[in-house]
Amino acid sequence: MSNLAPDARAGPAESNDPAAQTLHQRLMTSGLERPEGDRTLLPGDDASKLAMTQKRVDKGDAEAMQFLGDQYYYGMLGLAKDVPRAIELWTEAAELGSLDAHFSLGFVYYNGIGVEEDKPRGTHHLQQAAMKGDVDSRNKLGDVEYDNANYQIALQHYMISAKLGYE
């Protein structure tokens, strides 16, 4: 019998720790970590990575949509920078439940980075992700409330994000 707590024995995907699950999810979508037993070769070139990601997008994979949205937003994997396409992919991923997509939409709309500033829309997306446990969104909501001089509410958001593992 192990002396470790159940979460310490579980892999990141099975853990009850939201931070471990988020890290696992981000690693999985970037191709840096794979499920145990997965022997599929990872593509080494941008075109192959793009093709593999597009296949997942075509099957309705929200995390692949989020990842591809990032690639369009930043102009990576040989893609031309295309913010409207990134927004479209992030929106679809958010509708399918991707917390990372909600965070991305919230961040760019709230700050007007690459899109017309829309603070209410940005705040809405951040709230959607924060209510489902996204630490980055919760912390960003603290920034939003701080900017609006709602210091007590900002502190509450910061405290919650710290308890969830935000550093």
From TrEMBL:
Q: Annotated region Disordered: where?
A: 1-45
User: Per the record, where are the segments of Polar residues compositional bias?
Assistant: 18-28
Q: Organism's domain of life?
A: Eukaryota
Q: Which SUPFAM superfamilies match?
A: HCP-like
Pfam families in UniProt: Sel1 (PF08238)
Q: Would you identify the family this protein belongs to, as annotated?
A: Belongs to the sel-1 family.
What is the name listed in the Swiss-Prot or TrEMBL entry for this protein?
Answer: Uncharacterized protein
Q: Can you name the source organism?
A: Thalassiosira oceanica
Provide the organism lineage as a comma list: Eukaryota, Sar, Stramenopiles, Ochrophyta, Bacillariophyta
